Amino acid sequence: MKNYLIKLFTVVLLFTSYFATAGGGWPQKKGKGFFKLGQSAIIANKYFDSDGNVIDITTISLYTTSLYGEYGFTDRITAIAYVPFFVRSTLNKTQNTQTGAIIPGDELNAFGDTDLGLKFGLTNNKPIAISASIIFGLPLGKSALIDENFLQSGDGEFNQIIMLDAGKGFNKWYLNAGIGFNNRTQGFSDEFRYTYEMGYTGYEKLLLTLKVNGVKPINNGSTYETIGNGVFANKVEYLAYGPEISYKIKDNFGVSGSAFFAVAAKRILASPNFGVGLFYTL
Question: What CATH number did the domain enclosing 76 receive?
C-alpha cells in the first residue's frame, strides 16, 4: 500500500504544476507581465489505477503554495516561471481492521519542483496568435529518487517541455489550443500534452474560462523503480477539465478561483484540484 501511494502522490504533483502554466498563443508585450500567488489543494481517498478503475485508498492531501509569472523581455519573447515554494502533504493514519493496531500517518513540508522557460511569439498582429514555448522542469523538490522519502514534493527528474500554442479572439470570446512534448529523464516515459481553453471577456471586471488538459505517455520509459519504493509516477495518463473565474478588483489587481477534474485517467487521484489566487498585471 505504501509503494502504491508513493506513485499516486507524485502524479498529483505533476497534475498540479501542469495547470500552473498559462498564456496560450499570446506572449506578453515588452515590459508587461502577469504574476500570480496561488494556493491549490487536493484531498483524495480514491484513485484511478493503471487500468483506469477508481479504487479506495488511504486519504492523502496535497497543498501547494506557488508563484507563477510571465514577463515580456520583448514583444516576442516572454519569460515564464512557476515556483512552488511551499508544498505540504499529509497521509492519514489508518487502523488495521483485524488487529486494531494504529498505522501512523505521515507529513512533509518542502520546496517543490520548479519550472522555468521562454515563450517565443511566432506571429505579430495577426488574426491568429501562434507561439512556441520551451520549459525546463528543475528537480528541486524532495524525491524518493534521492532521499528515499515516502512523501515527496517533486519527482526527481529533469524534464524539458516544448509547446506550440495558437489563439484567436473574436467578439467577446477567445479560443486557444496547444500541443506539446515532454521529454523526461531517469527512465520516465516521455509524454504528449494537449490543451484547450475558451474564455468569455464580455464582463467589465470578470473573466470566465473553461480549460481542458491532457497527458498521453508514449510508453518508452523503463520499468524503473525508486529505491525500495516501486515504479514512481511513470506512464501517467489523464484528460482533465475545469472552470476558472478571475475578477479584477482594480485595473491591475484581482483574485481567481478554479476547480479541475480528471476523467479517463490512469495512475492519478480521482479527486478535484481546487485553487485560489491573487494576480497582478504590469
Answer: 2.40.160.40
Identity at 198, one-letter amino acid code: M
Question: Percent of the chain, pLDDT > 90?
Answer: 53
Longest Cα–Cα distance of the chain, Å, equals 69
Distances (CA, A) of 250 to 68, 191, 206: 20, 40, 11
3-state helix, strand, coil in the chain (%, to 5): 5, 60, 35
The three cell numbers locating residue 75: 514583444
Range of the domain at 251: 2-281
pLDDT, position 22: 52
Alpha-carbon distances, residue 55 vs 3, 49, 103, 271 (angstroms): 15, 7, 20, 12
- Exposed/middle/buried for 6, CB within 10 Å: 0-12, 13-18, 19+? buried
Closest CA to 43 of 91, 109, 103, 98: 91
pTM, entire model: 0.86
Region 128-157: mean pLDDT is: 81
Q: Are the C-beta atoms of 47 and 93 separated by less than 8 Å?
A: no
**Domain count along the chain:** 1
**Residues contacting 114, CB < 8 A, separation 6+:** 81, 82, 83, 84, 137, 138, 140
d(CA 13, CA 248): 29
Residue among 153, 223, 162, 229 at smallest CA distance from 191:
162
Partners of 135 in beta bridges: 117, 161
